[in-house]
Structure prediction request, 271 residues.
Amino acid sequence: MSSPLINGVPAERIGITDRGLHYGDGLFETMRVHDGRIPLWTHHWQRLSRDCRRLGIEDIDAAALHDEVRRVSTGIERGVVKIIVTRGSGGRGYRPPPVQDQTTRMVVPYDWPDYPAAHWHEGVTVRLCRTRLGRNPALAGMKHLNRLEQVLARREWDDPAVAEGLMQDDRDRVICGTMTNLFIVKGGRLLTPPVRECGVAGVMRGLLLETAGGAECTVSLEDLKAADEVLLCNAVIGLWPVRRIEERVYPVGAVSRSLMARLRSDGLLDD
Ligand SMILES: Cc1ncc(COP(=O)(O)O)c(C=O)c1O
Prediction:
């Protein structure tokens, strides 16, 4: 596997004054690599550049970043490449430097996470997390570096039989998993919670909304229990059907199976 790159140079350490470290002042993308390519590159780049604009991180070098992603992905048959972009280094204090010196671009390769094939074929067991998501429209949707809610939620269990935990906001609305977006199937409709107040606007969520006729809809615990099918998605796993949430058992239904077949044929899911 090739070495991680920091601003295009093989390296593994960043400077002590980097604002990503001090304030979480930056963004990341976690991307699936298939035969040396990132099949969802355009989607990842669109989200990253849009969210850089939202944060006012302006001087990101798109051509250099794309070239670095290509260099790190080359030769990886199946794996994961992560991009981290931060506002770069800054003095002490929250105020961003008036003149931005240089953003920090990190491109890091990882082995494929060896999830059991049964996660796709039989569906996953999921728990409900106690940790809630705070509502904040200024940050909602972005894949920013402040992920402490997910860290706290993921600390809630260590049973390897539980693949994911669902998170609610402070109004009891179910929003997403710790590392996935949520869809339910109800009366043949594919529905996902809005991410205008909290949650991440995942690229796989976006793809399913665009191409599979999905729609946004608030989801309560009752909706979840009454759903015909439940599925979780992200750019790395593609999609996992949900087999069980607490005591409720779901089938791996027709909608999940047909979406997985489509993702498989597009190289976005392989088990
Ligand atoms: C909190 C959270 N929500 C949603 C997602 C799914 O995002 P994507 O489809 O872009 O991988 C992730 C992925 O890591 C995540 O960490």
About this structure: Residues 30, 150, 176, 179-181, 200, 202-205, 234-235 surround pyridoxal-5'-phosphate (CB under 6 Å). The CA atoms of residues 168 and 188 lie 24 Å apart. The mean pLDDT is 95.
